[in-house]
Design brief:
Helices cover 54% and strands 9% of the residues. The chain is mainly α. Helix 1 packs antiparallel against helix 2. The protein is globular and about 50 Å long.
Amino acid sequence: MKYIFTPNYESYEGVRPINIYFLRVLYFLRFVGVGLEIVENAHHSSGPWDHTKAVAFCVWAAYPTLGLLGLIRPLRWLPIVIFMIFYKTLWVFVVAYLLWRAGTLAGSHAEEMAHVFVWSPVVGIFVPWVYVFKNYLKTDDKQIPKHTHRPASRDVWYLKSDSIMPYSTLTITDFT
């Protein structure tokens, strides 16, 4: 029992196994839950789709399908979980809250979605936020090369292999 609450530096880069297990359950439930709804919606559609709704449907289908890869490598696919938490929480505050405040949420098509999305911040409990900060937000000084000169503000920067280099011969005025 102690093992699942102790950070595992060998297998999970210092993340507690309990977080890994919860992430795998989340990836699986998303695949099954959303996957069944996707199959149902695809079978009940009739005629050609509106192109905007078709794009939204394909994004909606790709999202849990990519989550299957999270079963294998849960930490590598954390950005998709963070994306899920962010967009659903944003939707609750931007759409559902305004509908609720106007008294039009109850009985609308958005009501069922609001009941599901309102729980999205709870998923954040299972995200290893220290790992997220260290691997996705914190910059490592070793990755950014130190230059002997300070580039002029009008220098154009380009990416060459693994380092960022100033390309001083081109200026912004060359592109206008």
